[in-house]
Specification:
The chain has 182 residues and is an alpha+beta fold. The chain contains four helices and 13 strands. The strands form four sheets. Strands 1, 4, 5, 8 and 12 form a five-stranded mixed β-sheet that branches.
Length: 182
């Protein structure tokens, strides 16, 4: 259990990193095939971490599983409050944005809190202990990333990780209190 806690903390602390690069145009994906990239000044790469939930000591491959995050997202301009629905393609989002401050969050959180709390999967199964409304409010308010676009800045590259947990999925508020596999 200690290794699960340590790994969870590592993913939370290192989940979003910001770099700047000046290259645009053609990039190569994992299979080294040239992909045409649209004009952009912000590139956000989002991966979903898949936890190891087995009982035996995991291999490095089992600890480092992830997949592209392609669920719906909402981009918000925090200066004027305008919102835009966006979708990452194969875990990458290319945006050409004017100067400003922005946030990016999951689409399923773009509803009033009362509705989010009612919609949240709180199965309360025999081993799942539901979280309280304070935790759910914090989760609902959280963003995947916050960033600022400044004119004449090189392309801003952001790397984000969406982490899930064993037996409760992406829900960080519920707690599993049951047996683990051998």
């Amino acid at each position: 259990m200690k290794i699960h806690t340590f790994l969870f903390l590592v993913f939370i602390l290192g989940s979003c990193a910001v770099n700047s690069v000046s290259s645009q145009g053609v990039e190569k994906n994992e299979t080294e095939v040239a992909v045409e990239v649209p004009q952009h000044n912000v590139q956000i790469m989002i991966r979903e971490h898949i936890p190891y939930c087995g009982g035996a000591y995991p291999s490095d491959e089992q600890l480092n599983r992830s997949k592209p995050y392609d669920a719906g997202l909402v981009l918000t301009n925090t200066i004027d409050g305008s919102k835009k629905d966006v979708n990452a393609k194969n875990g990458v989002l290319y945006l050409n944005l004017p100067e400003g401050k922005y946030t990016l969050k999951e689409k399923y959180k773009d509803i009033p809190f009362n509705q989010f709390f009612l919609n949240a999967e709180r199965s309360g199964g025999s081993y799942i202990i539901p979280g309280d409304s304070i935790c759910y409010k914090k989760w609902w308010e959280s963003n995947l990333v916050e960033f600022e676009v400044i004119s004449n800045e090189a392309t801003k590259i952001l790397n984000c990780t969406v982490s899930s947990r064993c037996y409760t999925g992406i829900n960080p508020c519920d707690y599993y209190n049951g047996p683990y596999p051998p």
